[in-house]
Structures are given as structure tokens and as C-alpha cells.
Design a protein that fits this description.
The complex is a heterodimer of chains A (346) and B (312). Chain A is α/β, with parallel strands linked by helices and 346 residues long. Helix content of chain A is 36%, strand content 15%. Chain A has 3 domains: 180 residues, 3-Layer(aba) Sandwich (Rossmann fold); 82 residues, Rossmann fold, CATH 3.40.50.920; 44 residues, no CATH class. Chain B is an alpha/beta fold and 312 residues long. Chain B has one domain: Rossmann fold, CATH 3.40.50. A 5-stranded parallel sheet of chain B has the order 1-2-3-7-6, sandwiched between helices. In chain B, strands 4-5 form a two-stranded antiparallel ribbon. In chain B, helix 7 links the parallel strand 2 and strand 3. The longest helix of chain B is centred in the N-terminal third of the chain and has 22 residues. The radius of gyration of chain B is 19 Å and the shape is globular. The chains are: A alpha/beta (346), B alpha/beta (312). At the A-B interface, helix 4, helix 6 and helix 12 of A face helix 6 and helix 7 of B.
């Protein structure tokens, strides 16, 4: 027996190894240069940005090799902090750093960041509106046979319900660069949902006009619109090419920011194409599809409305005053119902 | 009244930014024993007054910390109420956020805001809720309320101050009941690992959580030994004795690289009002009109010697 015992007899091109060695040692992964993969770009881009911006600090939780923040550690050791296997402490400490003027990028598996640390993200990052950048990598089912403990199929739904939190999913390395750069000027907290880091190229270059909250229309078509995000963008584009061969023209929309959603682009897709399909690596409850459905089912001239608390943290007040403020008492609910009935029908 | 978190630091290298900072004198301190005990009485009386506006309040958790608040804010912290975002100030994180009702009057008294604003306490649209909000209240260094988070906040602040090469300290006031939260010990481990000598944990060891005595609900002792076992330097003091509190604060080593510092302050929950001292049913309460007047009179009369938990 020779070689790495973890890789004996396996197809290494689809192997996840926790220390990142499967890509670190390879010139290409499935045809894409290893250095052009998101897994490498994260550490490299943060290192370059930190050369010019002393606010940037990087935190991880015993995954510096898996997420390649070791590259940041090598270049900026005084601004790199490994918190060990203590994700909640890492996220709250990042918030403490942000309260003192730093821009912390805290990176670990999405299952442990978006799910385990949901309360720390809500209470310590989003509620004080601090510029913490939560880098949730290996999201969805990208860790394959590691199993449910390491999957994150709920994080978009959980993060999307936190007031003021920006939720974005880069499709590839170039989009990741664009998001990291733009994040330096983004107010409030950001949840950046990455795949396994082996995602092939979608964008040859980082979109020069990138802005959070804007969708990218990657292919035009009138028969169908597919709205997708993150690691599913590439397979959706490939699917659109297959459909085109059958005479079905598909509009492909990269909803790179899931929250705030590009509502105009969703409405345009529904108005200008024959059907809308959403595609996401996430539980069907609460994710991108739910966000799109909320826009399409609700709105002017619709006979459906959601009544509840808008995307904000509630003010201070006695409970009865808060229920009245949000019209969640009987009088308020009745008033909202009358408004819905009075609105002109489609 | 609204204040956003302090503006991000300039993009100058930290050392340059720190060097460009003009030297600043922190607020003058007043450590006269009569003055400090009067301020502790003020904290308790304001807690009683503001609780009546709310219709309920965390009396006893605030009373146990009254001397600690007074000693820190009037006698020790390097702060400047005229410039709440002063980058070189000491930070104070109230991890036991439910005692904020005792901190708000101090901040108003020091000039962070008009004390008259406190009359809106907990009313609709007020900046002052049961737990402090850093976005709404000048002088609050971090929002709190979810127990177990504050020491992690302090770890992050101390690391940021190190990156920026500032000499300030970070004080975190912990309740004893919240020490059952696992995140506290994640933070304790990290603070020692990163050698955060600028981080000071002050435990308001009043002995009680909501369901009973901490040692019966979830034992936290031996506290000093536990912190020491995590790599901290720990001292244990009478948390109602100004001489002991200021002595412990003055004895802190310089805030550079070194073991983080824990001050276990033995206190009496409900201290200052006889019917609340050591009582389980005053964690959250609401005084009747008759009791309100009696309690105010009792606070005006001054503190009697404490009756400690082990003496009951």
C-alpha cells in the first residue's frame, strides 16, 4: 500500500478531503484550472484585498485548509484567527471585532455556520447591523457521503428570515471575487453561501457592474425561464443548451443574491416567458423557490397576501402595543383582509 | 438617540491610524466612598422607578451589580461620554443584559444622553428596552440579552484592539447563571489561547438563577478554579465593597499579551432591599404602590450589612 490511504482506489476528481489536498495538489479539476476554482479564490482574493484594507480579518473554525484560508494566514498571520472547533464563539467574536471597526470574514461549513450558529448570526451580527461576512462553504449536498450532519439544505430558509441580512450565492470563482470585493462597502451582515469550491467557470471575469440585489440574465429565451442560484447555475446553463437542441428556448437567470431578491427580474420572467422554474440545491421549503413564489403569488391585482412582520427587528414596546403596531390583533387582521378584498382583481 | 455602530476605521494601516490619534484624557473619576455609595443608591432607586413604568423589572439581578456598575463607570473605565465612539476607550459588555435597567441611569447621568429620555422606558418606540440595544443607545458598546454570548463578544473586541494596537481593556460582566451556557467556555478557552490580557470578566456571583440556587439548578463552582483551569488569572472579592472592587480593578496587569483576567464578585441578589435579598421570587417582579414607597424609603436609609448566601 502506497499513497494517501484516504484516496486509495477512488476517483479523486470527485473526492472531498477535509484538508483540501485533493485540489491543492492538482493542476486542474474536471477540466478547470485548480487556481480558478472558488476554493482557491477565497483565500487568494481575501489576501489581496487585505493588502489594501487593514479592516479585513479572517476567522475559521479548524478548517483553514479545507477553505484555503491558509493562504490568508500565510500572508496576514496577525489578522488570521483560528477558533478551533467552536463556531458559535467564532461568529460572536467576529461581531465583537466588527463592533471595533474590523470587517471580519468568518468561514466554515454551511451546516455549522448557517444552521448551528443561526442565533449568533441573528442576535450578534444582524440585529446590531454589523459588517460580519459569513462565508458558508460546502453548502447543500456538496459533501455527499459525509451525510446529513454535513449537509446544509435549510440555511437559505433560515438566513432569509433574518431581518436585514444579505444572502448571496456565487456561481463560480469570478462571481465570488466580485462579491468579496463588493462586500467591503456593504452595510450590515452578509451570508455568502458557497458550494464545495470546485464549481466550473460560469463568468469569465468578475462582473464589473456587480451589485448585491441584482440578478444576471445569462441566456435569453421566451418558452421558459429558469431562476437559479449558486452551484446550480452551471448545470442549469447546460440544461438550457440541451433544451435548445429540442427547440425550447430558455431564459436563464442567476439570482446571485437571494436576499434582497431582484423582484423586477422575477416579474419580468413571469410576464415575458411561458413558464417559470426555480432550481436550487436546498430544501423546497423556504429557499429561492419560496422567495420567487412569494413575489409571483402576491402582489398588485392578486387575491393572495401574506400578513405578518416585515423584514425588520421589532421596536421596543409592551406586547399589546407591538401586536397593534404590526396589525396582528383582530382589528388589524380584519383591516388587512378588507384591503385585500378591496384591491382590484386580476 | 439613534447611533449606528462606530464608523469603520480608516484604511490607513492601524499603526498609522493609532499614531495619528491625538492623546486624550479619559473622563475624570470620582472614587470618594460617599460618592460611589450614593451612585449605587441612585442605580437602585432608578431601577425601582423605571420598573414601575414598565410594570415589571429585573430588580434583584440589578441590585446585586449596583456597586460593580458604580465602581466601573464612576471610578475606573477609560471612557468619554462626549465621544462614545472614541476608538481607544475601554469597552464594557453587559453579558447579563437583563441588568441594563441599572446601567441606563448611569449612562444618562454621565451625559451620554438626556436622562429625561429614561421616562420612556419600555414604552412603544423607546430606545430603552429590558435588554440594551447598541444601535439605539449611546454608550452601549454591544447589544445583549441572549445569555452566554458576551464573553465571545469580548474576545472579538480584544482581538480587534490588538490588531489596531490600542491599549484599551474590554470588560465583560457575566451573570453566574449564564455560566451554564457552553459558549462561555468556548470563549474562555479562546481568550486564554489568544493570551488576551486586555480581557476582564467580572462575574456577578449572586448565587441565584430563575429556578433557584445555581448550585442546585446547575452548579457553577468552583468558579475561580474553573477559570484558572482554562488559563485565566482569577481573583475573588466582595462585590459590594468599593475598596475591594477598585482594588481588584487597580491590580489588573497591563493589558498586553498575557492571561485573561477574571474577577469573581460575590454579591447578594436583591442587595439593598430586605425582602428581595436572597429571595427567589424577585428575579422579575412588580412592586405594589405601598411597597414602592417602602422600598424607596429603605434605599434612602442606606445599606445594612449584607447577609451572604452561606449565612442564610
Amino acid at each position: 500500500m502506497t499513497g494517501d490511504p484516504r484516496t486509495q482506489g477512488q476517483d479523486q476528481s470527485d473526492l472531498f478531503t477535509g484538508d483540501g489536498s485533493d485540489i491543492a495538489a492538482k493542476p486542474t479539476v474536471q477540466g478547470t484550472p485548480a487556481r480558478a476554482l472558488p476554493a482557491f479564490v477565497l483565500g487568494e482574493e481575501l489576501s489581496a484585498l487585505a493588502d489594501a484594507d487593514p479592516r479585513i480579518v479572517v476567522l475559521t473554525a479548524d478548517l483553514a485548509s479545507a477553505n484555503r484560508t491558509v493562504e490568508f494566514k500565510a500572508r496576514h498571520p496577525e489578522r488570521f484567527f483560528d477558533f478551533g472547533i467552536a463556531e458559535k464563539n467564532m461568529v460572536t467574536a467576529a461581531a465583537g471585532m466588527a463592533a471595533c471597526g474590523q470587517i471580519p470574514f468568518a468561514a466554515t461549513f454551511a451546516s455549522f455556520l448557517g444552521i448551528l450558529c443561526a442565533e449568533q448570526i441573528r442576535t450578534d451580527c444582524a440585529y446590531p447591523n454589523l459588517p460580519v461576512r459569513l462565508i458558508a462553504h460546502h453548502s447543500g449536498i456538496s459533501m455527499g457521503y459525509y451525510g446529513t450532519s454535513h449537509h446544509a439544505l435549510e440555511d437559505i430558509a433560515m438566513m432569509r428570515s433574518i431581518a436585514g441580512l444579505t444572502v448571496a450565492c456565487p456561481a463560480d470563482a469570478a462571481m465570488l471575487r466580485a462579491m468579496l470585493r463588493a462586500s467591503l462597502d456593504l452595510p450590515g451582515a452578509l451570508y455568502l453561501r458557497l458550494g464545495r469550491g470546485r464549481d466550473p467557470v460560469v463568468y469569465p471575469e468578475p462582473p464589473a457592474d456587480f451589485a448585491f440585489g441584482r440578478a444576471w440574465r445569462l441566456r435569453e429565451g421566451r418558452d421558459l425561464a429558469i431562476i437559479t442560484t449558486g452551484a446550480e447555475v452551471r448545470p442549469v446553463l447546460d440544461a438550457a443548451a440541451m433544451l435548445a437542441a429540442e427547440g425550447i428556448e430558455t431564459r436563464v437567470i442567476d439570482m446571485a443574491t437571494v436576499k434582497p431578491l431582484d423582484i423586477a427580474e422575477v416579474r419580468a420572467a413571469a410576464a415575458e416567458t411561458g413558464a417559470v422554474l426555480t432550481v436550487e440545491e436546498h430544501n423546497l421549503t423556504g429557499g429561492l423557490g419560496s422567495a420567487v413564489a412569494e413575489v409571483l403569488v402576491e402582489g398588485p391585482r392578486r387575491r393572495f397576501a401574506r400578513h405578518g412582520v416585515p423584514d425588520e427587528f421589532a421596536p421596543i414596546g409592551p406586547p399589546a402595543a407591538l401586536y397593534a403596531h404590526y396589525r396582528l390583533d383582530a382589528e388589524g387582521i380584519a383591516a388587512r383582509a378588507r384591503e385585500l378584498l378591496a384591491a382590484p382583481a386580476a | 438617540m439613534t447611533e449606528t455602530p462606530e464608523a469603520p476605521e480608516s484604511r490607513e494601516p492601524p499603526e498609522t491610524a493609532a499614531a495619528a490619534m491625538p492623546p486624550r484624557a479619559p473622563r475624570d473619576h470620582n472614587r470618594a466612598p460617599g460618592f460611589l455609595s450614593d451612585r449605587a443608591r441612585f442605580i437602585r432607586k432608578e431601577t425601582v422607578r423605571l420598573s414601575r413604568i414598565a410594570g415589571a423589572g429585573h430588580y434583584s439581578s440589578t441590585f446585586s451589580a449596583a456597586e460593580l456598575f458604580a465602581a466601573l463607570y464612576y471610578g475606573h473605565l477609560r471612557i468619554d461620554p462626549a465621544d462614545p465612539a472614541w476608538p481607544d476607550r475601554d469597552r464594557f459588555v453587559l453579558s447579563k443584559g437583563h441588568a441594563a435597567i441599572g446601567l441606563y441611569p448611569v449612562l444618562g447621568d454621565l451625559g451620554y444622553f438626556d436622562p429625561a429620555l429614561l421616562d420612556s422606558h419600555t414604552r412603544f418606540g423607546s430606545a430603552f428596552g429590558d435588554h440594551p440595544d447598541m444601535k439605539k443607545i449611546r454608550g452601549i458598546d454591544f447589544s445583549s440579552g441572549s445569555l452566554g454570548h458576551g464573553l465571545s463578544v469580548g474576545v472579538g473586541m480584544a482581538l480587534a484592539l490588538r490588531v489596531q494596537r490600542r491599549g484599551a481593556r474590554v470588560f465583560v460582566m457575566l451573570g453566574d447563571g449564564e455560566l451554564a451556557e457552553g459558549q462561555i467556555w468556548e470563549a474562555a478557552m479562546a481568550a486564554a489561547h489568544f493570551r488576551l490580557g486586555a480581557l476582564v470578566a467580572i462575574v456577578d456571583r449572586n448565587g441565584l438563577c430563575i429556578d433557584g440556587h445555581t448550585e442546585e439548578v446547575m452548579a457553577v463552582e468552583p468558579l475561580a478554579e474553573r477559570f484558572a483551569g482554562f488559563g485565566w488569572q482569577a481573583s475573588r472579592i466582595d462585590g459590594h465593597d468599593f475598596g475591594a472592587i477598585l482594588g481588584a480593578l487597580d491590580a489588573l496587569p497591563p493589558p498586553g499579551e498575557g492571561p485573561p483576567q477574571a474577577i469573581i464578585a460575590d454579591t447578594v441578589k436583591g442587595r439593598g432591599v430586605a425582602m428581595m435579598e436572597g429571595a427567589l421570587n424577585w428575579h422579575v417582579g412588580n412592586l405594589s404602590d405601598a411597597d414602592y414607597d417602602a422600598v424607596m424609603a429603605e434605599l434612602d436609609a442606606g445599606l445594612r450589612p449584607p447577609v451572604w448566601e452561606h449565612e442564610r
